[in-house]
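wait is this the right file?? whatever heres the structure
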C-alpha cells in the first residue's frame, strides 16, 4: 500500500518534499515486461489475459476477435486497452473483421467510461513499436484513457508517480455495470 510520509533531510536540511511510496511499480520500472520481440503465448500479457478468468485478467468485455481489458499500469482510473486476440504488432496487420470490432469496442469503451465515471474527455491512441513508446510492442493494443479537469498534477511530471483513487477491481466492476453492447 502506498504511504505518504514527511520529507527526510539531507545533511540536516529538509528538502520540503513528501514521499508517496509505490513499490509495486518496481517490476515495471526494472523492465519485468515483454520485449518488442516477445512471442505469442504466456510471454505476452495480451495473449495470456484471455486465458484467465475475467477478474484475474482484468477483462471488461470479450468480443469475437478482440477484447477490452483494464491497463495494469493505468495513467488514470478506467484506463482501458482494446486488444485483438491474435498476436500482431501493427494496426495494418488486422483483418477487416478485426479492424471493425477493434473500432466498435473502442466506441463501446468510451460509452461505458462515460456512464461509469463521467470523464470530461479522452485520450485515444496506440504506440506502434518500442521506439514509439509501446510498452508491449509485439501485441497491438489501443489505449482509451478517460480524462478529467485537473487530473494531471506534479506527481507524474516530477515524481514519475501516478496517484490513483480507485482499485482496479472496483473500476472493472463499475465498467461491467455500465457496458452495453
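ok assuming it is, sequence goes like this
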Amino acid at each position: 500500500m502506498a504511504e505518504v510520509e514527511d520529507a527526510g533531510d539531507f545533511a540536516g536540511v529538509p528538502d520540503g518534499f513528501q514521499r508517496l511510496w509505490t513499490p509495486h511499480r518496481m517490476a515495471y520500472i526494472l523492465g519485468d515486461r515483454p520485449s518488442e520481440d516477445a512471442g505469442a503465448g504466456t510471454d505476452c500479457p495480451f495473449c495470456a489475459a484471455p486465458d484467465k478468468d475475467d477478474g484475474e485478467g482484468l477483462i471488461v468485455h470479450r468480443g469475437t476477435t478482440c477484447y477490452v481489458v483494464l491497463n495494469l499500469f493505468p495513467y488514470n482510473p478506467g484506463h482501458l486497452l482494446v486488444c485483438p486476440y491474435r498476436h500482431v504488432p501493427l494496426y495494418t496487420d488486422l483483418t477487416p473483421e478485426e479492424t471493425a470490432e477493434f473500432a466498435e469496442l473502442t466506441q463501446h469503451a468510451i460509452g461505458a467510461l462515460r456512464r461509469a465515471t463521467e470523464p470530461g474527455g479522452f485520450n485515444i491512441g496506440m504506440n506502434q513499436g518500442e521506439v514509439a513508446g509501446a510498452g508491449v510492442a509485439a501485441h497491438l493494443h489501443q489505449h482509451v484513457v478517460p480524462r478529467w479537469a485537473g487530473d494531471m498534477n506534479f506527481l507524474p511530471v516530477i515524481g514519475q508517480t501516478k496517484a490513483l483513487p480507485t482499485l482496479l477491481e472496483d473500476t472493472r466492476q463499475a465498467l461491467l455495470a455500465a457496458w452495453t453492447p
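Residues 6 and 35 are 37 Å apart (CA to CA). so i think its the right one actually
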